[in-house]
Design brief:
Layout (H helix, E strand, L loop, with lengths): L10 E3 L2 E3 L6 E6 L3 E2 L30 H4 L11 H7 L3 H4 E2 L2 H13 L2 E6 L9 H11 L2 E4 L18 H13 L12 E5 L6 H17 L3 E4 L6 H11 L7 E3 L2 H4 L3 H8 L4 E4 L20 H16 L3 E3 L19 H12 L4 H16 L3
Parallel strand pairs: 3-6, 6-7, 8-9, 9-10, 10-11, 11-12
Antiparallel strand pairs: 1-2, 4-5
Length: 371
């Protein structure tokens, strides 16, 4: 591999490689253009999106009752907003297709002090490199694009028979050459999607992604299954496949682990812990109704505890906006929530400025820099 293929010391954005010092405030897990409606098939609405409709081994497919199905195709309006926000399962809500809206939202983010975002939309979720490039040019926000594959429901038809080596080569090409014929390159591998229990097709993608991480120097970002045992199991699989835990981000800590001791055990592996659901403050979590959901205050308490334990260099935060209900245009907090609401709360709760700087600027720059 030539040095030109591995941009050591630089961050790869959709508009080219940049010095990590120019990123500024960075949210490492967002979606600007995406389609999450594939999750609707788990509620018995398989024809809505293009994901695989195969029965998932070890998982119970929930049926959406007829009385509720009309809400699946409703539009977001003031009178439907609260229900759609709580229940999620709505096509209009889960499709972020409007480029102009994304530009407007990113302009607000830039105006509030945002410098960069990671759009970790993988293959199968309507990833759009050209749209991301246009959004970046129009707003001045640096955009780092993802690659690889999400969970089983978003895999293309016939994907179970795709060779693991071919998946690895596709990821490497997206990072080093570009997506399709766009010439626009991914700067992060992920978000790689894992279910619980993990499925063989997902494990194959994870191994391919870990090897691609080792060969390209790109960071690796993983969406874990919804079980406290999942993150450690995934990190072990990354290591076994030749990947580097210190170049790996474990997403969604704030819906997967609820005890600081469990977070400390994960941090001890060397991986980055990403609390990326800031602004999503609800006791009800549609994908798993029994899941504990923290508010922003609790998220900040966890970050401070992890910082005090010596893991401040491994913490990242974001909002994981992948639904219209969280956009400013539709009455949500927008991508500016961390800047305008969470960071002032961090100060009120006594978080040290040095830790805030690490979480929002230094750590994103470190993990996104190719090694």
């Amino acid at each position: 591999m030539s040095s030109a293929e591995r941009p050591t010391g630089l961050v790869r954005t959709v508009l080219g490689d940049v010095d990590p010092g120019v990123l500024g405030h960075t949210q490492t897990h967002e979606h600007l253009i995406s389609d999450m409606s594939g999750i609707i098939q788990r509620w018995g609405m398989q024809a809505v999106s293009g994901g695989s409709s195969d029965t998932i081994p070890g998982q119970v497919r929930r049926e959406l009752p007829a009385s509720a199905r009309r809400y699946v195709f409703d539009k977001i309006r003031p009178e439907t907003y609260d229900r759609i926000r709580r229940e999620v399962i709505n096509v209009d809500n889960l499709q972020l297709f409007d480029e102009e809206t994304s530009i407007e939202e990113m302009q607000l983010y830039r105006g509030a002090g945002g410098g960069s975002v990671v759009d970790c939309t993988p293959i199968g979720m309507a990833r759009d490199p050209l749209a991301l490039a246009r959004i970046s040019r129009a707003t001045g926000v640096h955009v780092v694009m993802g690659c690889g594959y999400y969970v089983h429901d978003f895999h293309p038809p016939g994907f179970d028979s795709v060779d693991e080596q071919a998946i690895e080569e596709e990821i490497i090409r997206d990072v080093q050459v570009g997506v399709g014929d766009t010439g626009l390159r991914s700067g992060i591998i992920g978000e790689i999607g894992m279910s619980w229990p993990a499925l063989p097709c997902e494990e194959r993608v994870l191994r391919a992604a870990a090897r691609a991480q080792q060969k390209t120097g790109a960071p690796l970002q993983i969406h874990p299954g919804r079980d406290p045992a999942a993150p450690l199991q995934i990190i072990k699989a990354v290591v076994d496949a030749g990947g580097d835990p210190e170049r790996t981000i474990m997403c969604h800590i704030d819906r997967t682990l609820w005890q600081v001791d469990d977070m400390l055990e994960l941090a001890a592996t060397g991986c980055y812990l990403e609390l990326d659901l800031f602004g999503q403050e609800s006791s009800y979590y549609a994908p798993e109704p029994d899941t504990v959901r923290p508010n922003d205050g609790t998220r900040i308490d966890w970050l401070m505890a992890l910082g005090e334990a010596g893991y401040g260099d491994q913490l990242l935060i974001a909002q994981d906006i992948c639904q219209k209900v969280y956009l400013r245009k539709y009455g949500g907090p927008g991508y500016t929530h961390i800047l305008e609401a969470a960071m002032p709360l961090m100060r009120r709760k006594g978080m040290e400025p040095e830790l805030m700087q690490k979480i929002t600027v230094d750590n994103p720059a470190a993990i996104l820099t190719f090694r």
